[in-house]
Amino acid sequence: QVQPVESGGGSVHSGGSLRLSCALSGNTGGPVCMGWFRQAPRKQREWVATITTDDGAEYYADFAKGRFAISQANVKNTVYLQMNSLKPEDTAIYYCAAWRRSLGFAPIDDQAKMNWGQGTQVTVSS
Question: Cβ-count burial of 62 within 10 angstroms (0-12 exposed, 13-18 middle, 19+ buried)?
Fold first, then answer.
C-alpha cells in the first residue's frame, strides 16, 4: 500500500506563490503516476496536474497551464507543485494522489483505485 503525505499549504494574497510537497511511503511497485487534485467548497474534486515517475512526463489541467508546475525530486517518490500567480478561485483543499500508470494520467472515474493523501488547505485572498 502507498500512502501519500502532502504539505505546504497555507494562506497567500492574490498573485502570490506556494509550493506543495507530496511524499509517498510504502511500496510503490511498478510504474506510478503522482498528481494533484483540488476541491473547493461546494464543488466537485478536479484534477490539477500529473507527473509520471518513470519518465517525468508532465500533464496539466487547462487552468493550471502557465501558472503551476509539477516536478519530481531526485527521490522519485516525492513530487512538488509550484503554484504561481495564485487567484482567489484557486482556494481549495489540495490532495496528492498516487496510482498505477495503467489508469492513465488524469483519472476521472477511478478515484477509488487511487491512493490519496489527507489534503492541505490553500487559501488565496484578494
Answer: exposed
Task: Fill in the DSSP letter of residue 119.
Answer: -
In this predicted structure, the answer to whether residue 14 has a pLDDT above a threshold of 90 is yes
Q: Which of 31-35, 41-45, 117-121 has the lowest mean pLDDT?
A: 31-35
Separation in Å, CA 87 to CA 65, 70, 84, 101: 14, 18, 9, 31
One-letter amino acid of 39: Q
How much is the CA Rg of the chain, to the nearest whole Å? Answer: 14
Q: Which residues contact residue 39 at a Cβ distance below 8 angstroms, ignoring those fewer than 6 apart?
A: 45, 46, 92, 93, 95, 119
Q: Report the percentage of the chain scoring pLDDT > 70.
A: 97
Q: Model confidence over 107-119: pLDDT tens digits?
A: 888 889 999 999 9
